[in-house]
Amino acid sequence: MGQSMSDLPSRLLLNLEPWRNAAHWRVAFSGGLDSTVLLHLLAHLAQSESLPRLSAVHIHHGLQAAADAWPQHCQSVCDALGVPLLIERVKVQPGASLERAARDARYAVFSSLTQANDVLLTGQHRDDQAETLLFRFMRGAGARGLAGMPKQRPVGQGTLIRPLLDVSRSELEAYAQAHQLVWIEDPSNQDRKFSRNYLRHQVMPLLTERWPQAQASMARSAAHLREAQGLLDELAQIDLADAATAHEFEWLGLPSLELAPLAALSVARQRNALSHWLEPLTRLPDTDHWSGWANLCDAAHDAAPIWRLADGELHRSAGRLWWLSGDWLRTPVIGCEWQSPSSALRLADNGRVMFSGQTPGGPLRVAYRQGGEVMHLGDRGHRDLKRLLNERSVPGFVRGRLPLLFRGDELLAVANLPGLDGSMQDGWKLHWLPTDEDQGLS
């Protein structure tokens, strides 16, 4: 091991040095070995060091009968250490992977609890990191996945820290025994049908028997891959800066990139840049599903290809890529009378419209394009709406939801399109806000 158990407190303190000025350290406390040792270490350090306010949170999933006794156990441990404990009960959504669903439920609570300048501390250690790497390796992960669990990442409005990632399980066990700590053994930790337990009990012992330093070596590999991923992220930012050009449809408020600069890159660089761009927007596609990107790029010039992803769609239109989700994927309801044009009109699944300047005389209604509409332009006579939209390179997905203002059968205005959006001589314009601000970035 090279490091004795007695220096565990000072190593932990060193790992937490950057967060000594946080408002609050909250330990995710399952009652198992790792979080029990972490909580004990911190409670004892707090007696001699000036640390942020310390508390613990126990998430009760209620997935197995044994778990019903755990909140009480956690409460007595915290009472003995003088640490306040919050017990949160969650409902786990049944689905394909119970492990994943339980984790999602846990992290939803962690996110909601963690305020700005709060730190959430979890007890994962070096053996967990090695198991994570092997597990992801078996699932064909890329550099990002094989970089393992990061020492820190954002959670809620604060930061999640894993301060024990450089400590082995055997060191934690030795500490727990030396201090006569009592912890919960989760029966499911022995169940070999869970991949992680299989790796922990069957595979790891064989590897470490042959290569005693296996876990430390794997942690080192993870660090190299994390550095490589950092370089890939920097490259993505360079490539995305070239594609994030200004355009005349900024008012749509949609994530958008110019296609030509991306298409000029090698395929691997395209994928790297796009993954980086899509990551905050959707769950990323697996390797097989990336063919959808090739189809999007290769489609004929006049085609309107769509790549459907887990949480939305990527459209190609007017020389750009557009990310559509939420209301943008719902077909707006045909239209409605505008009874009081002096105030904004809410449109089902399509934001709202309003006038600036004078309001034109009625009766007015707002509708959407059906095909065949004609508009009278003083200086140009009657023109097909389709042709007017083509002239302005309006993206295809916008055309069916651009609010059109009618008086009777006469098309008076097309919202937001300069020259078509109102009447110069009567001094009014029709404005469309495609999404309600209160939706934020949902």
How would you describe what is shown here?
There is one protein chain. By secondary structure, the protein is α+β, with helices and mostly antiparallel strands. The protein folds into three domains: 5-227, HUPs (Rossmann fold); 244-324, Uridine Diphospho-n-acetylenolpyruvylglucosamine Reductase, domain 3 (2-Layer Sandwich); 335-439, no CATH class. The chain has helices spanning 8-15, 33-48, 70-81, 98-113, 126-138, 143-146, 169-178, 195-210, 214-243, 259-263, 267-278, 291-298, 385-391, 396-399, and strands spanning 24-28, 53-60, 85-89, 118-121, 152-155, 158-161, 256-258, 306-309, 312-317, 320-324, 335-338, 345-346, 352-357, 364-367, 374-377, 381-384, 404-407, 410-414, 422-423, 428-433. The strands form five sheets. The protein has a six-stranded mixed β-sheet with strand order 3-2-1-4-6-5, sandwiched between helices. The protein has a four-stranded antiparallel β-sheet with strand order 7-10-9-8. α2 (33-48) crosses α7 and α5 (126-138) crosses α9. The radius of gyration is 29 Å and the shape is elongated.
Which fold name corresponds to the CATH topology of the largest domain?
Answer: Rossmann fold
- Biggest β-sheet, characterized? 6 strands, mixed
Amount of helix: 25-40%
Biggest sheet strand order reads: 3-2-1-4-6-5
Low-pLDDT stretches are: 438-442
What class, by secondary structure content?
alpha+beta
- Quantity of strands, as a count: 20
Q: How would you name the CATH homologous superfamily of the largest domain?
A: HUPs
| Shape field | elongated
Number of helices: 14
**Overall number of domains:** 3
Mean pLDDT: 87
Distance between the termini: 47 Å
CATH class of the largest domain: Alpha Beta
What is the architecture of the largest domain at the second tier of CATH? 3-Layer(aba) Sandwich
Q: Which band does the percent of strand residues land in? A: 15-25%
EC number: 6.3.4.19
Keywords: ATP-binding, Cytoplasm, Ligase, Nucleotide-binding, tRNA processing
Protein name: tRNA(Ile)-lysidine synthase
GO molecular function: tRNA(Ile)-lysidine synthase activity
